[in-house]
Structure formats: structure tokens, C-alpha cells
């Protein structure tokens, strides 16, 4: 803030002469060493005015910028906004600040000093408010001024950017920074300060302060950590309001916070966020009146607004200091709240203007009064308003371009005494939903009273007196109060005085139009009779001036019975035997309900036209009622059957008689929750008065229990009345809707069984009457009850039948090229037969000749080069075949010694079948296993016409023939493949 002793004296003389100068525009030049500020479309003259008689000046070179102090000694500058900021709404504001090239170092001739301050102010001098130069940085008074002649910005709060550490021991006026550590003597600091009359001592008393220094070297002359660092630095400030109440008075407060230090690079236009000063630079302000002298209790925002601006100064050193606009506060179009007499344009009070930031929320109801006094008459808000907002609501977000209007409508209330103290009542036991002036009740009911007092008759202090009738017994500890101080939440208060004399003091002096509420409970005692009216009212005020409330009335019911209906439920599946108001169960559980209806034992009246209605919360999804089980049993033993619980007409009854209704149902609900079941009864007395009552009994559906699953495997050709299981049955337990695979990893649905083919499946336990369906690869789910799954299989069988002997007979042994044919009986062709029952694999017929034709004598002659030759081969399929697939065959082939002829007859299966490799098993519910069926095929050698010429043995002429028997062996085989 300052420099040396000699400069302090000169600065003081300069202040003396400034006081007599006329306000005139300063002429300032822009130093060549100071770079251009960040660009902006804003113009400083549109927003701020320069304080007359100071050295501040707007820049012609950069219209967004104000020069607070030119590059000279002993300068003083100040600017104030043309418009005020509304403290009722939040705002954010940003400026780029130039504080100089270096901080106030005592050993540097042109060190920066003294600094600038941002202020919010409500000074009576308005836009001409200014403090002193030098250490006062244009905001504070200077310690050498005479008492009564101090200059400082009054009713204000400053955020100083102080580049000089003022603490010279032998000069009283140099103690501004006595509370700032010496470590900040050359770096500069920022702080919250409340300007005030310092008298002859300039010790400020910073509210909160921050400074930086090199954290590792403790070098407080490191330029990196200096406030004035030869850069434009960003200063952002934010305000968030908070309204509280104390003794019924509105208190406007909030939080003011700022950030400082982002360096601007004029060459690149980049902003360096790493240079921002660390720390929580915020100040909680409980009451704006503490700093700004504004009345925060008023609804008029003009009394809760401030000017904003900057001041600054230099002392014994030249320093150029400037501020350049970045963002303006509360630039949104305002919202205007009007308060008019309903049906007219007469305004009860001046409109309230809400100002804020575009996009931020506003709520007109927060500023709306319930009561407004106008021309000595009271007007109450009707609950109606008009608004030209997009959704016609009295709340929303501020628009940057469009202002909104909300008009609240009020109605005159005459005389106001009728509204000053209002009393309401509620029957808590009967679950009354609203506060009313008249309700009903019976002995033992809990009654609650509410009193609302509003100061409409100039009674601002006193007592509420509420002498409860003798029929109401006060419930100790139930006395509660609500007021603006509690944000209208009821808070329990001490009731000792109320218990002794049934009075409650006003919580504080109630302002005109202000309100508070009381609430207390009491029970209807036994000293009442049907038809009695319990009338209660209260007074508010003093012995000399008071108002009386309306009557709050409780009429005693003429109900001739008490507890006339009682409903209970038990879970028969869980073997419960006692009815209760609530039980638990699960899907498929059997529950039983009981409803008892009877007149009160002390009633002398007869109940007629008794109508019982029983309602399930969701009858389609929660409970399956057995309508055949509904039975009404009377006290005399007589009964009546009913087909629905929706409407049951009961016999007339007098005291001592009763009706018991029972019925059963099965739980259908599968999700956790309550099945609510409410029975209601209405009846008439002999006096034709209608009464009603109800009772509930619920079933809590709990997390389902584990159920069992059993899987069996049977041969469908077995006696299904008592089958022999072809594989061990599988048993498992699990949660309903859980898959079997969660508890069993084996492949069991169905199993792959050797020599068996799965065909079908059923969930029926009686297999003699079972409904079978096609089986498929499954991962069955557990049900809500035990289940049995049975898979039906067929024994798989494949066989081949071939002739035991082919005899070519006795032939001429002459050596010639000859084919000898196999002769058949009656010209019937030879054949190879294949039978395939329920096989799932494709197959093919093969033949192999293991050796040459060899004589049967001891010489073992070989019939060399002899060859079997087959022609006219064909396949004959059985007409009853059900097998699924395609058959193919060869019509001719030759058999050589040692060779194998395959694919004589090939059957290719079609369909979906089990595979030993589960991953290759393509079955699903939509693609079940194919029933492979049964089949029989004959590979036939010729037909009736060609049978004797279809199997031949060719022997070439070169083969020597002996008179002997020759034979060989043919092997017919089937090869199966997946």
C-alpha cells in the first residue's frame, strides 16, 4: 500500500489539496509496456462512471477498460456502476485487472503500490463515494486524518488486491497491514475488508486474507508468487443469497466468494489457470445489513441493493493500474412482481423487480406476502395469479432477452378480526386428511387443534389462550409451534405453562401482517354421549386488547357399535391355526380369511340393512378366491352360502348377535409385497342413520422358498402304470424361476442314454394319463411348487440279416471264360435285410470277401482270378416304415478278394437328434428332437425276372479248374455314423 516515510508525508499533502479540486476528466496515457487487455464487446462507459475529482479515466484505446491510476505517484481513482446489484438474487461478475509489473519492494524504486479494491457499497454519496489515496487505496481512511474528517467508502465491503505491505512501526498511519504476516511484505495479498473510520490509527483489521510465496525456498521476492506480475489477471466474484428469519423478521444474507490470478497471454490469447491463487476465498455474511446498512426484512429490493466498482491509489511510486470488463452481473431481463386488488389494476405495493443471471432460477412465491395493508385495510392473497412466462407459472429461469411479469391477486378481508386468529381441528384417529372447523369423533379418539395467528389488528405481543373443554384431555408433550423462524416446520415447545394455565406466549413481537401457528393434541374422554358437540375456541392478545377465534367443533358419533368389524387371515399351507391381521406366504399357498361383524355389546340399537364388501388389492394377479368356500355363519348356528365376497347381505342383528364370514384363496402373486384385503361394512340403525367401518387383513408375499424338481426316465414300451426307470432319477431343489443348471451342471434334461432314444416328455405324474409332447434339450425352471418331469425313451435297435449260403451248384470244369450265376428258388431274388428301430445315426451297408475261392479238399486249390459280379441291385422299403431319412443304393458292383464294397445301401437320417457333444446338440423348445421312427429295407439282387442273372461268379479261361468244391466267405456289415 505505501512506500517510504518521505512519500507518506507527500501523499498526505496531496490528499489535502485534492479535497478542493473540481471534478474533471483526467488525461491518462497508456504505457507502452502494458499489453492490450483481453478483447471484449463491452464498453466501460455504458456500465461505470468515474468518481469526480479522481485520476481515474476511461481508455479511448481500449473502450472496455478503465484506468484506475495512471503511471504516476500519489494518484487516486474510483469508478462505480450505473446500476445497482440486487442482493436478493445471485450474481457473478468478472474483470481483468492490471496491478503493475512488480510488487511493493522497499529496495525497488518503481515498485508497484499501492493497489486497488473491488467494493460493494451503499454509501450515501452513491457514485461519488471515495476514500483516501496511498495506503487507503481509495477505499479506506488514512490514519493521520483528524477525527471527523476521515474519508472512506461507508456501508461497504471491500476485496482488496494490495500490492504494498504497510506496517512501519513508528508511523501510526502505516499500520494498515499489521495483521498480515511479514512473509507477505513483498508478495502482496488479497483480503476481505470492511472500510471504517480509522481515526489516527490505520490498522484495518482484515476479515480474511490470502497471500502466496515460494513454498520451497521461502523466497518472498519470487515474481511467480507476486500479486503484481506484469500480467492481466482475472478477478471473478460470486454471490449466493440465503434468507433466514429471526423473531419473524426476514434476514437477507449469503456467501460472497472470489477467485483471482489467472494470467492472460496477449500473444496467444490463452488463459493460464495454473496461476490462480489457492484457497477458499469466501465470506459468509449472515446479514447484509452488517456491511451495507440495508433493511433485509423489507420486501422492497431497492433497499437490498448495492453499487459495485473499483477504487485504487498510488503513493510514492509510479504504478499503472487498470480494470477491463469480462462479464457483467445480473444481465438477465428482470422479472416484475405486481400485487393488485383482484379484478382491478390497483397496486397494493410497489412492484418488486427480480434481477439475476440468465439461466438461473427465480421463484416469485418467495417474495409474495400473504397479507398486505393498503389504505389501512388488509388484503389477503387469493391464491390466484397471472404470469406471462412460457408455462404461465410464477417461477422459472431468468431470460437474457425477455422480461416476465407476474401479477398476484388479493382480496380485502373485513373485518380483519375474523382472520386474525383461526382455529381448525382434525381427528387423527380417524385419519382426517385436512384441517377443518367441524369434525366427528368418539371416546378415545386423538384430536389435534391448529391455531393460526396473524397480526391484523396491531396486537403484536401477548398470549394465545386456549382453554380446552372438559371433554378433551390434553396430551402432554404435544404442543408445537411453527413460524418463519422455523421455516414453517412445527417444532415442539415447552408446555409447562400451557398445562398450568392453558396459555402460550407469542414467540416474539409479531410484525404487522406477520403470523405464527400452534398445534396441540388431546383425547376425547369418556364423559361424552352420542350427538354431543365439543366446542372449542381461543383468544390472542392481552387483557386490554385481544381477538377471538372461530369455533372448532367435534361432534360425537352416534355409532351404536364399536369395533363392529374384525378381519383376520391365516396360512393353511403353513399350518397356521390363529387368525391375525397379517400373515406371510408365497405363491400357491392356501390362505383362509375370517371376518366377524357384530354390534357393540352396550348398544341398544338394532343394525339393519347390513352390507359387507370385501376387496382384494389386485384380484386378477394377487389372489385366486375359491368362491365355493364363502360361508356366513351366524351366532345361532345358521349359515348362508355366497358366491362372491364383493357384496354380501347380512341378516339384521342386535347386541349379542354376530356374523362370521370365512373363505379361502390361493396366493397368485409371485413378487415380494403385500396382498391387501379390506372388508367394509355399512349398516343402518332403527333411526335410519347410516354407519360404516372397515378392517384389513393382509398377506405379505415373501421371498419364495426352494421347491423340488424330479426328473425321471422311462421306456415308453414298458408298463407305464409301474414303469422300471431306465436311469437313475434326478432330484434337485432351487428358487422358483431359477434354471436347473444353477444347481446341477450335469446334462440331465434329458440324459443321453446308451441304446435308447429320447422321444417325448411330460409334466404329469400319472403316466397312464399323461399328455406327452416332443422332447427337446432343456434347462427347466423351478416352479413355485414341486414338479416332476418324465422323459420317454424308445429302445434303439439296428440289425442286418444276410443269407447263410450262396450255392452256385455243379458246373462244367472246362477252361473257358465263363460266368456262373446263382440260381434262386422259384425265381425269388436274394436279399440283405436291415431293420432300424429308433436309431438316430445314419448307416450304410458294406460287403467284404476275405479270401479267394479255395477248394475244400486237402489240396486247397485256388480258383484264381474268380470274381463275384452283382447286377440289378435295388432297395425295397417296408410299406410301414416311419423312419425319417433318405435311402440310396448301388445297382451293380464287383467283389474282389480282400476288397470292401461300401455304400451298397445308405440311409441318411433327417431331423434333430441328441448328440453326445452337448455343444453340437441343436435341439430347443422350438426345435424339438425328431422321433426317428422304425424302418426295414431289403437290398435285393434283381427281381422275379432277373433274380437268376443278378449274382454271378466270373472265372476267366486262364483259370485251371479242378473237380472239387470251391468256397469263400462274404462279410455283410453296417457302419453307423453320427
From TrEMBL:
Keywords: Signal. InterPro entries: ConA-like_dom_sf (IPR013320), WxL_dom (IPR027994). Pfam families: Lectin_L-type_dom, WxL. Residues 913-936 are annotated as: Disordered. Residues 1-25 form the signal peptide. Residues 795-978 form the WxL domain. The keyword DNA damage does not apply. This is WxL domain-containing protein. It comes from Dellaglioa algida DSM 15638. The lineage of its organism: Bacteria, Bacillati, Bacillota, Bacilli, Lactobacillales.
Amino acid at each position: 500500500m505505501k512506500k517510504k516515510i518521505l512519500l507518506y508525508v507527500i501523499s498526505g499533502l496531496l490528499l489535502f489539496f485534492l479535497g478542493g479540486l473540481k471534478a474533471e476528466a483526467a488525461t491518462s496515457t497508456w504505457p507502452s509496456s502494458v499489453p492490450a487487455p483481453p478483447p471484449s464487446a463491452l464498453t466501460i462507459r455504458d456500465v461505470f462512471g468515474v468518481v469526480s475529482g479522481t485520476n481515474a479515466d476511461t481508455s479511448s484505446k481500449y473502450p472496455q477498460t478503465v484506468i484506475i491510476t495512471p503511471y504516476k505517484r500519489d494518484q487516486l481513482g474510483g469508478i462505480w456502476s450505473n446500476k445497482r446489484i440486487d442482493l436478493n438474487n445471485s450474481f457473478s461478475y468478472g474483470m481483468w485487472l492490471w496491478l503493475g509489473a512488480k510488487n511493493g519492494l522497499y529496495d525497488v524504486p518503481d515498485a508497484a503500490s499501492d493497489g486497488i479494491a473491488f467494493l460493494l457499497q451503499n454509501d450515501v454519496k452513491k457514485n461519488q463515494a471515495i476514500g483516501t489515496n496511498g495506503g487507503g487505496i481509495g477505499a479506506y481512511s488514512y490514519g493521520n486524518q483528524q477525527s471527523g474528517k476521515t474519508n472512506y467508502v461507508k456501508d461497504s465491503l471491500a476485496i482488496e488486491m494490495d500490492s504494498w505491505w504497510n506496517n512501519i512501526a513508528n508511523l501510526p498511519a502505516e499500520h494498515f497491514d499489521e495483521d498480515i504476516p511479514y512473509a507477505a511484505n513483498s508478495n502482496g495479498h488479497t483480503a476481505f475488508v470492511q472500510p471504517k473510520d480509522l481515526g489516527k490509527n490505520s490498522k484495518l483489521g482484515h476479515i480474511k486474507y490470502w497471500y502466496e510465496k515460494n513454498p520451497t525456498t521461502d523466497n518472498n521476492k519470487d515474481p511467480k508468487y507476486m500479486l503484481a506480475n506484469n500480467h492481466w489477471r482475472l478477478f471473478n466474484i460470486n454471490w449466493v443469497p440465503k434468507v433466514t428469519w429471526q423473531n419473524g423478521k426476514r434476514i437477507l444474507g449469503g456467501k460472497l466468494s472470489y477467485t483471482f490470478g489467472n494470467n492472460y497471454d496477449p500473444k496467444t490469447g490463452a488463459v493460464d489457470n495454473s496461476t490462480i491463487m489457492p484457497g477458499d476465498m469466501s465470506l459468509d455474511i449472515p446479514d447484509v445489513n452488517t456491511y451495507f446498512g440495508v433493511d433485509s426484512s423489507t420486501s422492497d429490493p431497492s433497499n437490498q441493493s448495492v453499487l459495485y466498482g473499483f477504487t485504487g491509489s498510488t503513493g510514492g511510486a509510479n504504478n499503472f493500474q487498470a480494470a477491463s470488463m469480462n462479464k457483467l452481473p445480473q444481465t438477465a431481463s428482470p422479472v416484475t412482481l405486481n400485487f393488485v386488488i383482484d379484478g382491478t389494476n390497483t397496486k397494493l405495493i410497489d412492484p418488486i423487480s427480480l434481477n439475476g443471471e440468465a439461466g438461473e432460477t427465480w421463484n416469485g412465491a418467495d417474495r409474495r406476502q400473504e397479507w398486505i395493508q393498503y389504505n389501512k385495510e388488509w388484503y389477503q392473497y387469493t391464491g390466484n395469479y397471472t404470469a406471462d412466462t412460457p408455462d404461465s407459472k410464477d417461477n422459472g429461469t431468468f431470460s437474457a432477452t425477455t422480461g416476465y411479469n407476474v401479477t398476484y391477486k388479493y382480496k380485502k378481508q373485513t373485518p380483519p378480526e375474523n382472520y386474525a386468529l383461526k382455529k381448525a381441528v382434525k381427528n387423527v384417529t380417524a385419519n382426517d386428511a385436512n384441517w377443518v372447523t367441524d369434525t366427528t369423533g368418539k371416546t378415545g379418539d386423538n384430536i389435534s387443534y391448529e391455531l393460526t395467528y396473524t397480526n391484523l389488528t396491531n396486537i403484536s405481543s401477548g398470549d394465545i389462550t386456549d382453554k380446552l373443554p372438559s371433554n378433551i384431555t390434553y396430551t402432554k408433550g404435544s404442543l408445537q409451534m411453527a413460524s418463519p423462524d422455523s421455516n414453517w416446520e412445527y417444532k415442539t415447545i415447552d408446555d409447562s405453562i400451557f398445562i398450568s394455565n392453558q396459555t402460550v406466549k407469542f414467540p416474539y413481537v409479531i410484525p404487522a401482517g406477520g403470523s405464527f401457528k400452534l398445534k396441540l393434541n388431546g383425547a376425547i374422554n369418556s364423559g361424552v354421549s352420542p350427538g354431543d358437540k365439543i366446542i372449542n375456541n381461543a383468544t390472542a392478545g392481552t387483557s386490554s386488547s385481544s381477538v377471538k377465534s372461530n369455533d372448532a367443533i367435534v361432534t360425537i358419533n352416534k355409532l351404536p357399535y364399536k369395533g363392529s368389524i374384525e378381519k383376520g387371515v391365516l396360512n393353511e399351507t403353513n399350518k397356521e391355526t390363529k387368525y391375525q391381521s397379517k400373515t406371510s406366504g408365497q405363491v400357491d399357498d392356501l390362505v383362509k380369511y375370517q371376518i366377524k361383524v357384530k354390534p357393540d355389546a352396550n348398544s341398544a340399537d338394532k343394525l339393519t340393512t347390513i352390507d359387507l364388501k370385501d376387496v382384494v388389492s389386485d384380484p386378477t394377479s394377487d389372489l385366486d378366491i375359491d368362491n365355493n368356500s364363502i360361508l356366513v355363519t351366524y351366532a345361532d348356528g345358521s349359515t348362508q352360502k355366497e358366491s362372491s365376497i364383493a357384496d354380501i347381505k347380512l341378516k339384521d342383528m342386535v347386541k349379542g348377535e354376530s356374523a362370521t364370514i370365512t373363505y379361502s384363496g390361493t396366493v397368485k402373486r409371485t413378487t415380494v409385497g403385500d396382498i391387501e384385503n379390506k372388508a367394509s361394512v355399512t349398516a343402518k340403525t332403527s333411526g335410519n342413520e347410516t354407519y360404516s367401518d372397515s378392517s384389513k387383513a393382509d398377506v405379505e408375499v415373501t421371498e419364495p422358498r426352494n421347491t423340488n424338481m424330479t426328473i425321471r426316465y422311462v421306456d415308453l414300451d414298458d408298463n407305464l402304470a409301474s414303469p422300471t426307470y431306465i436311469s437313475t432319477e434326478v432330484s434337485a431343489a432351487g428358487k422358483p424361476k431359477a434354471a436347473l443348471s444353477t444347481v446341477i451342471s450335469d446334462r440331465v434334461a434329458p440324459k443321453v442314454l446308451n441304446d435308447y432314444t429320447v422321444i417325448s416328455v411330460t409334466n404329469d405324474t400319472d403316466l397312464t394319463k399323461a399328455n406327452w409332447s416332443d422332447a427337446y434339450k432343456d434347462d427347466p425352471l423351478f416352479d413355485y411348487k414341486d414338479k416332476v418331469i418324465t422323459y420317454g425313451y424308445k429302445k434303439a435297435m439296428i440289425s442286418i440279416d444276410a443269407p447263410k449260403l450262396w450255392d452256385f451248384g455243379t458246373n462244367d470244369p472246362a477252361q473257358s471264360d465263363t460266368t456262373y450265376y446263382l440260381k434262386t428258388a422259384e425265381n425269388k431274388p436274394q436279399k440283405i435285410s436291415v431293420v432300424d428301430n429308433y436309431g438316430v445315426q445314419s448307416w450304410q451297408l458294406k460287403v467284404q470277401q476275405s479270401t479267394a475261392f479255395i477248394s475244400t479238399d486237402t489240396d486247397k486249390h485256388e480258383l484264381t482270378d474268380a470274381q463275384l459280379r452283382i447286377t440289378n441291385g435295388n432297395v425295397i422299403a417296408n410299406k410301414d416304415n416311419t423312419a425319417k431319412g433318405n435311402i440310396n443304393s448301388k445297382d451293380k458292383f464287383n467283389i474282389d478278394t480282400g476288397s470292401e464294397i461300401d455304400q451298397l445301401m445308405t440311409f441318411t437320417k433327417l431331423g434333430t437328434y441328441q448328440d453326445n457333444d452337448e455343444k453340437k446338440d441343436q435341439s430347443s423348445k422350438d426345435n424339438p428332437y425328431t422321433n426317428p421312427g422304425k424302418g426295414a429295407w431289403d437290398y435285393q439282387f434283381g427281381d422275379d425276372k432277373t433274380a437268376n442273372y443278378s449274382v454271378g461268379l466270373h472265372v476267366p479261361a486262364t483259370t485251371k479248374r479242378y473237380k472239387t468244391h470251391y468256397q469263400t466267405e462274404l462279410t455283410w456289415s453296417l457302419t453307423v455314423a453320427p
